[in-house]
Design goal:
The complex is a heterodimer of chains A (146) and B (490).
Chain A: H1 6-29, H2 37-57, H3 69-89, E1 99-104, E2 108-113, H4 114-145
Antiparallel strand pairs in A: 1-2
Chain B: H1 2-20, H2 25-50, E1 56-59, E2 70-73, H3 75-97, H4 108-124, H5 128-146, H6 152-183, H7 188-194, H8 200-218, H9 227-230, H10 236-262, H11 269-287, H12 292-313, H13 316-347, H14 358-361, H15 363-377, H16 383-397, H17 401-426, H18 443-461, H19 463-478, H20 481-489
Antiparallel strand pairs in B: 1-2
């Protein structure tokens, strides 16, 4: 690789971890506050893009951050549609919601809804899409860098 | 309700399964074809239940109107879902036979099914924001499909397409935000009444904004420039389904928003001018081209003008003719692109100056091209003639003589450019086989194309009842009270 940026390398490491935590927060917050699966997926996807650029600048690609798109897309879609169909199976309408309250040690009492399941599915789909995009468009990009 | 949900949810669920079955290509094909068969069946069932002009409504998740996501099928939406499911099915069979879409990475089938879900949702959704979501689902799938195979040219032209689509999406979202800010709702049935209460200036401003957004998708004048650049580079089955369906989603959205939200019963002079210019500029572009797929791509633009013409008249006959025209166009245009794909498969190129004499070496291909080409140009007795006749009559009755004149001129030019393909590719001496190696056409591809040619002939044979169906749909468009009451009460 002809170029190496230590600033990008170090910054990417920090931003990546913070970004993923932020994405997970958005995923959880989405029920009643701004956020949700789609937004969280986009934030995590942006992290993936940054990671892609940073990794390419470093000698020797780490395989640690590789995300394989197809299973993510598949499972994400399956979870999202599954939540919808589950509402049907329970005798309600398509996408009927179920709400459960649980008390967890650190977080206190939380309302878990089946919409959260849907959001997790959407999250996986969006991350998978970004990974797929990097796979197809990123390969041409790597050639240009070389 | 079930019939409303199946065309959207089933392809998504099948896409999930298909994506996980990466190592079993045969299973993915079975899932794809089976899903679209089921979707088509549900769509036909839906059409039968609304063919008397009634409206089927479903509220997703049991949320009350107008808060939740509403799915609505009126006759127009049901017709569109039936036709699009059929096209998706036939083109998938063609794609399975095509070497260009041989699915090594395992992406084609899942993404294609996601596209199918997005297309159905665009037609069935009852609120603007959900329409945006449907557009995004369709677009995301189309980004993957247009660069499928990923050669350099495809990626470059794909980027044009992606950038234009992103701009349109941002504009769409802004427009929805403005509508929500001024009325407090995004449910179309609810908006239908509430937009009547805002000031006329605001209403026409919003209407214009939506016309631009949907106009980019539909490729009307002057927003069509991206289409002839990006469509021809995709693999043939992908181009065919894009040409047949994606621009028509834009046209559908224009018709839906115009009739339900912005027109208030008035014919639109702006739309009439746009229609005439779209027809004319599109066909002039086609005349200047020298590649089969590029000629056909410019024709998409030109033909969109006819559909907008029908809407602009805002009479029962005009709208019925527009609906009839859309269905005719989806079938014929998809067929022509499938034939163009076969030509490339057979001769290795779509450039007219390198093609010659296909009539002698591939007579079946010549027949498959000739029938839909004559139909597109509007030669009797094909479906294009019936559709254009209906439009022209409606135009005369509404007193739009100038646009009628333009449409006749455009028809002649369309015929001219079809003759150009015919003379360039099919007539003349057969190509010397040492310059271009002739190849065998996969039987699955020929079969799928032949099916569509037969379908377009059947379309003419059943023109009378189909036109009546178009009239039922048009009645629902002119007087949206049935639609609105159904959504309110459902």
């Amino acid at each position: 690789m002809s170029w190496y940026s230590p600033i990008l390398d170090v910054a990417a490491n920090v931003v990546l971890r913070t970004g993923i935590v932020f994405a997970l927060y958005l995923l959880y917050a989405g029920h009643n506050a701004p956020g949700g699966g789609f937004i969280a997926g986009l934030v995590a996807g942006a992290c993936l893009v940054l990671d892609h650029i940073a990794l390419r600048s470093r000698e020797g690609r780490g395989s640690l951050h590789r995300v394989t798109p197809r299973p993510l897309l598949g499972w994400g879609l399956a979870i999202a549609v599954g939540v919808g169909v589950a509402g049907w199976a329970w005798g309600g309408g398509f996408f009927d919601q179920a709400v459960v309250s649980v008390t967890l040690p650190v977080l206190g009492t939380m309302k878990l809804t089946s919409a959260l399941g849907f959001d997790i599915g959407v999250f996986a789909v969006v991350v998978g899409l970004v990974a797929a995009l990097l796979d197809s468009l990123g390969s041409a990009w790597d050639e240009d860098l070389r | 309700m079930t019939d409303l949900v199946i065309p959207v949810a089933l392809p998504l669920a099948a896409a999930a399964v298909s994506a996980m079955l990466g190592r079993f290509p045969a299973a993915r094909r079975v899932i794809g074809v089976g899903t679209l068969l089921a979707t088509t069946a549900a769509a036909v069932d839906l059409l039968l239940s609304v063919s008397d002009g009634s409206v089927v409504v479903g509220h997703v998740g049991g949320w009350p109107w107008p808060l939740g996501i509403t799915l609505v099928a009126d006759p127009l939406a049901a017709i569109m879902v039936v036709v699009s499911s059929l096209m998706l099915l036939v083109v998938l069979v063609y794609a399975i036979g095509s070497p260009k879409t041989r699915d090594e990475t395992g992406f084609f089938h899942p993404v294609y099914l996601i596209l199918a879900a997005g297309v159905s949702l665009s037609f069935l959704t009852g609120d603007l924001f959900n329409l945006f979501v449907a557009f995004e689902v369709t677009l995301t799938a189309s980004y993957v499909l247009i660069t499928f195979g990923g050669d350099r040219l495809q990626v470059r032209h794909g980027v044009t397409y992606i950038v234009i689509s992103l701009v349109a999406s941002v504009l769409f979202l802004t427009a929805i935000a403005l509508v929500y800010a001024s009325t407090g709702t995004v449910n179309m049935a609810d908006l239908s009444g509430k937009l009547g209460e805002v000031t006329p200036a605001l209403r026409s401003g919003l209407g214009l904004l939506f016309l631009v957004v949907f106009g980019i998708k539909a490729a009307i004048f002057p927003l069509f420039f991206w289409l002839p650049d990006s469509y021809p580079v995709a693999p043939s089955p992908v181009t065919a389904i894009f040409a047949g369906l994606l621009t028509k989603i834009g046209v559908y959205a224009i018709i839906r928003s115009h009739t339900l939200l912005f027109s208030h019963g008035q014919p639109s002079r702006l739309l009439l001018v746009v229609a005439a210019l779209t027809m004319l500029i599109g066909v002039l572009g086609a005349v200047a081209q020298d590649d089969v797929k590029r000629i056909l791509s410019f024709h998409i633009v030109s033909q969109i003008g006819y559909m907008i013409f029908g809407l602009a008249l805002f009479t029962l006959a005009g709208l019925a003719a527009a609906v009839f025209y859309i269905v005719h166009h989806i079938i014929v245009k998809t067929t022509l692109f499938l034939v163009a794909g076969l030509m490339e498969e057979r001769a290795g190129t779509g450039a007219l100056r390198r093609l010659s004499g296909l009539m002698h070496t591939a007579p079946v291909l010549a027949v498959l091209f000739l029938l839909p080409a004559l139909s597109l140009a509007g030669v009797p007795p094909f479906s294009g003639f019936v559709a254009k006749l209906a439009l022209i009559q409606a135009g005369f009755d509404a007193g739009a003589q100038v646009t009628v004149g333009v449409s006749l001129l455009v028809s002649a030019l369309t015929l001219f450019s079809m003759t150009k393909i015919w003379a360039g590719a099919f007539w003349g001496d057969p190509m010397e086989s040492d310059t271009i190696e002739p190849r065998r056409m996969p039987p699955l591809m020929v079969g799928a194309t032949a099916c569509l040619v037969v379908a377009s002939l059947a379309f003419v044979a059943a023109a009378a009842p189909l036109y009546e169906l178009g009239e039922v749909a048009a009645r629902g468009l002119i007087d949206p009270s049935v639609y609105v009451t159904a959504v309110r009460g459902g």
